[in-house]
Amino acid sequence: MSITTTNQGPVTRITLDNPDKRNAFDNTIIEALIDAFEQAGADAHTRVIVLDAAGKHFSAGADLNWMRAMGELDADQNRADARRLAALMSTIDGAAKPVIARVQGAAFGGALGLICAADIALAADDARFCLSEVKLGILPAVIAPYVVRAMGGRQARRYFMTAEVIDAPRAGQLGLVHEVVPAVDLDTTVERLVAALLAGAPGAQRRARELVHRADDSAVEQAVVDYTADLIAELRTGAEGQEGLSAFLEKRPAAWRHE
Ligand code: ACO
């Protein structure tokens, strides 16, 4: 099972459900997620969407086997595939209902895009975050518009280049998540936020995101989305990307590593 969707009254829970692979997502899971968000958005009974994950970790980001295999596709297929990853982020960012991300354990690479595209992100104090892409010879490209919006450009320059692991309190300071709570309190915190959302008017909430985007000029332009998709398509099939992805999968240091 890759993802599961559960309806509990007005709440639809979309769960990353492949803990053996640390909830890494490939093209099939990306399509399933896009579908699940669109269906929850269109469902008249759903008022709030909660994105969560089974197992110890939220998600290890993009499936690196899939990323590396893109080197075997022709350029057009590779770009088309990358645009679907970008479409997943836009779909969450533009979901028709408020989205809460519930984060435990590791949230690496593309997982940070899911979190920063959500309206509200709540993390357990054991959560850790990493924009690890540069270690793999690639970049956090399609997630950049959402991550940069959350942490700001100055911080993004540091963490995009260093791939340092960010602990939960620091993620709170950086604005990657709204609240950090003890792991045992994570579910009650989600419930508190769900209750707050259910008390608000759905029509007004639908317009709230657009209002914020207009007020702080934070809407993500389609041209930027397309640029980021083309960039990841280029990087993952380039020499550094293929070496970095292979090194991870073969459990060896990449050729550029100086110990
Ligand atoms: N893609 C494919 N397989 C993965 C991924 C991934 N992103 N992450 C982990 N796996 C695999 C591992 O290769 C390993 O496979 P194996 O059982 O065949 O050896 C298995 O999942 C378990 O991984 P471990 O590292 O042993 O799990 P652990 O619980 O110790 O650590 C963690 C979890 C921190 C998430 C770690 O797996 C990790 O650092 N993964 C890489 C995350 C990453 O850099 N993601 C960025 C991807 S690029 C992008 O999103 C655009």
TrEMBL record:
Coiled-coil ranges (or none): none
Signal peptide: none
Pfam families on file: ECH_1
Family named by the database record: Belongs to the enoyl-CoA hydratase/isomerase family.
Official protein name in the record: Enoyl-CoA hydratase
